[in-house]
């Protein structure tokens, strides 16, 4: 049996997938929706069954729950269970189940939570074990599936308004405004705050042959220079929560990380801004739209390495 301490993501996830494995069963104390998102979209045929063991002791946020549902609906390749037993599960186990007649299962246990930190950023140890013994660690009772009807009424989520899927954005705002670093990002040109981009920024898609709602939030070089390590590296997924209760999986993109974009569909962010500004879908955003709204910039707060809060109120 092998002990893996380096390149966990490549050794435990990428290599087995490239060898033909497709069904990944995960038991973890803590999970990251952005890391699950990365795995699902990087490995286009993987099916993930995820069990999170510490949710009763340490509730996940309502936006994390919503992101799991969004990913499941968009990919049809994710199932999530929350363990609700009185004694929380702090174990971390992954098992590649048989995908074909000649395929052998493969399993590992160890210290790595199923997060980017666990599999990429931190030093962790995972040990190969017999798959049958690994599967014995997975609970069979006291599981609450994330699609359970009215789950919001029976399970506690952090930053939840009542028994709903709505995000308590005032509570998030109070926390971030008092304790978290922030940057202001103009939605106009950096040279002239009274001039809006014609084929960039909010109007990135306003060119022949492009989806007209495509949008990105500009991040000038000086923001990176004065706030190093504020944003993640290029193409690293992160969650962007908004002051009106929306959430998106985004990435830093383009040359010099000059843009915040929504993953896989750049028009998602554009449709969001057009709705808030009262601009018809596909329409050109003008400086007058920003004037009427009363704000030409957003403030981004860094909650942690994978979660950001955007104030456009």
What structural keywords apply?
single chain; 313 residues; alpha+beta; eight-stranded mixed β-sheet; seven-stranded mixed β-sheet; 27% helix; 23% strand; globular
Give a written overview of the molecule.
This protein is an alpha+beta fold and 313 residues long. Helix content is 27%, strand content 23%. It has 10 helices and 15 strands. The chain has helices at 8-18, 33-42, 62-75, 116-121, 131-135, 151-154, 169-179, 221-226, 267-277, 287-293, and strands at 3-4, 23-28, 47-52, 78-83, 93-97, 106-110, 126-129, 143-145, 182-186, 217-218, 238-242, 247-253, 259-262, 297-304, 307-311. An 8-stranded mixed beta sheet has the order 1-7-6-5-2-3-4-8. It has a 7-stranded mixed beta sheet with strand order 9-14-15-11-12-13-10. A hairpin with an 8-residue loop joins strand 5 (93-97) and strand 6. The N and C termini lie far apart (55 Å). The mean pLDDT is 96.
Kindly summarize this structure in a few lines:
With 313 residues, this protein is an alpha+beta fold. Helices cover 27% and strands 23% of the residues.
The total beta strand count reads 15
Widest β-sheet, arrangement of strands: 1-7-6-5-2-3-4-8
Structural class: alpha+beta
Characterize the biggest β-sheet.
8 strands, mixed
- Poorly predicted parts: none
Count of individual helical segments? 10
Rg is: 21 Å
Q: Tell me the fraction of residues in β-strands, as a range.
A: 15-25%
How far is the first residue's CA from the last residue's CA? 55 Å
Order of helices and strands: EHEHEHEEEHEHEHHEEHEEEHHEE
Mean model confidence by pLDDT: 96
Range of helix content: 25-40%
Shape: globular
């Amino acid at each position: 049996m092998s002990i893996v301490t380096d390149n966990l993501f490549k050794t435990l996830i990428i290599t087995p997938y490239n060898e033909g494995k497709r069904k990944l069963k995960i038991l973890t104390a803590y999970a990251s929706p952005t890391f699950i998102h990365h795995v699902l979209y990087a490995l286009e045929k993987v099916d993930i069954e995820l069990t999170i063991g510490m949710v009763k002791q340490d509730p996940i946020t309502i936006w994390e729950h919503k992101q799991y549902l969004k990913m499941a609906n968009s990919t049809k390749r994710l199932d999530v269970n929350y363990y609700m037993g009185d004694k929380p599960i702090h174990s971390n186990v992954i098992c590649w189940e048989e995908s074909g007649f000649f395929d052998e299962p493969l399993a590992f246990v160890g210290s790595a939570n199923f997060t980017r930190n666990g599999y990429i950023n931190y030093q962790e140890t995972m040990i190969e074990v017999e798959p049958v013994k690994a599967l014995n660690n997975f609970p069979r009772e006291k599981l609450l599936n994330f699609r359970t009807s009215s789950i919001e009424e029976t399970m506690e989520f952090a930053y939840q308004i009542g028994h709903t899927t709505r995000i308590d954005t005032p509570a998030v705002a109070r926390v971030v405004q008092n304790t978290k670093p922030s940057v202001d990002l103009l939605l106009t040109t950096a040279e002239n705050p009274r001039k809006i981009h014609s084929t960039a920024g909010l109007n990135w898609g306003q060119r022949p042959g492009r989806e007209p709602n495509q949008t990105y939030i500009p991040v000038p070089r000086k923001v990176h220079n004065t706030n190093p390590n504020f944003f993640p590296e290029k193409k690293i997924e992160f969650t962007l929560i908004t002051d009106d209760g929306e959430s998106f999986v985004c990435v830093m993109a383009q040359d010099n990380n000059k843009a915040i974009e929504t993953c896989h569909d750049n028009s998602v962010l554009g449709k969001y801004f057009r709705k808030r500004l009262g601009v018809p879908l596909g329409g050109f955003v003008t400086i007058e739209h920003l004037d009427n709204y009363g704000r030409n910039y957003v403030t981004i707060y860094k909650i942690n390495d994978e979660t950001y809060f955007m104030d456009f109120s």
